[in-house]
Fold each of these.
Amino acid sequence: MNGRLVKWEAAKIHVLTHALHYGSGVFEGMRVYPTKQGPAVFRLDDHIKRLFRSASFYSMKIPFSEQELIEAAVEVVRENKLDSGYIRPIAFYGYGVMGLSPDGAPVEAAIAAWPWGSYLGEEGLVKGIRCKISSWRRIDPKTLPTQAKACGNYLNSILAKTEALRAGFDEAIMLNLKGKVAECSGENIFMVKKERLVTPPADAGVLEGITRDSVIRIAEAFGLKVFEKNIKKNEVFSADELFLTGTAAEVTPVREVDGRKIGSGGRGPITEKLQKKYFEVVRGEETRYRDWLTFVSRTQ
Ligand SMILES: Cc1ncc(COP(=O)(O)O)c(C=O)c1O
């Protein structure tokens, strides 16, 4: 936290922290996986790069270099003796000013890590999850930069996620203001149709997920065609397969949307193939993508 290792209980902030009031923070979510060579963080450099890009939308000057945050993330994993889990870097406007303009507020940065299993459940990874088309529309790029992984954006996700959970579903699919499919509360979405992958483009208002990019590259290496194009709501119902991607959700099949069965109503064969390869890649069992892994040595 702010350049020092602090105990979990001591990682505290002031109640007048700017970001607490206005959502003026940016963050990342990364995973560390066990490999034969010890724990490895998946696409660490890309996540830290996105953190800095997110910060730049809000003129936030993170008081550390990308390299320093990369090394800090590795250190946090090592110090916590984590073999697998989740890593949460965050940079935010701290305590200093109370107006909306954060000018004059210090920028604070912290990285936390903890053990965390599958986000949408082990069973969901195998059998697929049930989604609800949200009554909440995805924030529009003209109102908030959707490309930034900014704290305030997640109020939109919270509304969609809680609505879906309370209605007995696992996750929410959000449409954008044009009525096209955007993404889920914390995942990108892919549709399989006639052995081709289709996913909404960045300008549909989606966060360009790092898992989305990984899956696109894995799919193309399999010879699958991938199209970034707008998806109408009805196309979702007639998809052969549907799946979600995200650091937390990894590659999760969707078996049902609004009570309607998707494809065969389980994990489709293409989803299964991509999911299997994704898990091999993150666990270092596939040499082709080794440069996506940052290994954490047990000792410094
Ligand atoms: C809104 C949203 N979309 C998509 C994603 C997936 O991004 P990634 O694969 O980089 O974790 C996330 C998670 O970070 C997210 O919060």
Amino acid sequence: MPKDENKPMLPGEQIASIEEFEGGKNTYLASDGTVRSAAVGTKVYDLKRRIVKIDQKNSPLLPKVGDIVVGNVDMLFSSMVSVKILYLNDKKFPSGYSAIGSARVGARDRDRRGDRRAVFRTGDIVRGRIISLLNSQVHITLAEKEFGVLYTLCFICGGDTVRTNENSIKCIECGAFEDRKLTHDYGKETFRLIYKAGR
Ligand SMILES: [Zn+2]
């Protein structure tokens, strides 16, 4: 679910419709009437001539399968979690990509329908590993002990939290407990700083 105009384009990604812009360098016209990228790079619009091209010069670093992603949960669906990527392999990643992962990993409890309860909330800082780039979408896994929630604040009062056991945190302000899929290194100072910066 990328929204940022400056995010890197992958080959095959839609740039514009032919009614809006004509395709310039490193683009092609697809059979559905959309202008698509033929290369990795950033979009450059010529608004006067109504041409869009892909500039490979400033081609940013792109997510690859196996890369480690750190970001914050920006959307939560019943079974999926969308993570805005803030770091890629420990390097700042300013390109506006989001990754999606399963929201039910590590869930112990099941709801009345028998589904595993989600163990993430919007704003959580999470770490995952890229497992696929199918359809130009970054897919991550949040399973395994090094992946999951790195840090978050109390959902009820916004207070600081500490890990109490493998899969729950406690608010040191109001005492509320919450279930999360936690990493083995939950709550480190660096993750707290990322949380603040990601606001
Ligand atoms: Zn609280």
